[in-house]
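**User:**
If convenient, please work through this fold.
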Amino acid sequence: MKMRYILFWVAALLTATQVLAQQTPIYSQYYMNPYLYNPAAAGDAGTQAHFLYRKQWVNIEGSPETHALTIDGKMDGQPIGLGLTFYNDVSNVLSRSSIGLTSSYSFKLAPDHKLSYGMTFQLLQNRINFDRVVAEDMNDPNLLSRIDQKSVFELSAGLLYRWKQLKIGIAADQLLQNEISYEDASMFRSLNYNLVRHYITTLSHDFRVNENFRVEPIVVIRAAQGLPSQYDGSIVGKYRDVLWSAVGYRHEIGWAFSAGFDVQQIRLGYTYEIPTSDLDQIGGATHELVLGWRFSKGGTAGRGGSSLPSTSGSYQQANTAESQELDELRYKNEKLSQQLEESRDRHEAQESEINKLKERVVSYEGELKELIAQATRELNNAQNAKYYVIISAFKTLEYTKRAQSLLRKEKGLITKVIQNETGSFYLIYTNEYDSLTEALSEAKQLDDGDLNEIIVGNPWVYMKENE
């Protein structure tokens, strides 16, 4: 086989990778280590390390094989997570290696609402392994020794939102969309390999069936530029925070069956995938193994918010229960603190409103005093009149309505409004009477109360003759 034929097949493989498949590795046990897909999950479950090995379609020679190592954790006393990722992904003569450094930051939107965002800076190395090509002329030194490799920097980012046991994640990979060029000077040819953006969305909710069992349904949607979206669905069942099993389906690919345990610091998971497409006849199954070591718990672990159980043994189960109680108390305390803060804010707003109303009344205090004096002089001269117990007066209807609303909120007092004969004031009154004695009696009762916290001056009686 000549070099031009080799380049042809390499170009075909590169094109197939770009058009028919995603450029980034696909994992089944993303629920065991969410950091694999989303930088925002770095440190979410404490300090831990995971090693992953995945072999797809074992009956096909040169089928994809992936190795991955992740280490992530939270900084002590800080809402900052750090992570380190290594992976090597090989598909026949094409392979890729990556090293990435991650930083994430978490903050609370509300007592039960938490948002994290993270970014990973990656160094990617793409290789064409000519030494893996089976050729007619095995003595061609270009086939046996040459490995063409190119390196580029890339960037991925993610968001992770949590509300109680609900988690929603959005992440994007290969944001810079770099172009990798391979050249063959002897044939004056070049080949360009474009990295495209990949997006992944995850949605999960942890349901506690009883004190021994929890169930976590998970949905994953993947998308890449120029490719149709692909979805995964999994249901993870967990028993006593020690054993777990899962069943999942990948759209148009096949079924996955997983099981594992989480004892002390050790975590282990295994997945067996069965294809439902034509690969079932020629490719066979896929195997994935994950081995983890948890140095410390953190984030939402112990509250049912982590992706997998993390403790065993009666002592540790008791410790987990105490942690859950402490978390619940902490959240209740935060909720009460927020309610207190909101109450304080409302009180300050009402104080401000009261001061504005008092300032408005004071601004025309002279006119109001003259109106009250005139009304007092006329009280004993009427033969047929209505008597209104007035507690406040304003020149505009806007401030009148605001004062009525405040009296109702603060004192539970239902009031009405009339205008004086000249229409210069809106008078807020509590009741109307046919008897002056009754009106004066209520005015005195109101004066002895605590209305002076809101109104300016004392309650008084306004008389309006019947027509």
